[in-house]
Amino acid sequence: MRVIANHALCQGHARCEDLCPEVFATDAVEGKVVIADPNVPEALEAKVRLAVRNCPEGALRVARSQEED
Question: Does domain 2-68 have CATH number 3.30.70.20?
Fold first, then answer.
């Protein structure tokens, strides 16, 4: 599973970081989401899906493989 961010939509609410800090962070300059590694470990998939669902701007999405980017 991969997670993808649309920086044009991100408003820096950081809900994703609050819910899954192992994958998400906030850029100190722009205040937008940073993804440590877009290839999500299986153990974190549930937390990442929760973070994606909780993004108020819909700036995050999950893809099953690189082909879905």
Answer: yes
- Of 19, 22, 10, 23, which Cα lies nearest the Cα of 56? 10
The Cα 64–Cα 27 span in angstroms is 25
Structural domain spans, the chain? 2-68
Instruction: Return per-residue pLDDT of the chain as tens, 69 residues.
Output: 999 999 999 999 999 999 999 999 999 999 999 999 999 999 999 999 999 999 999 999 999 865 555
Q: Which amino acid would we find at residue 3? A: V
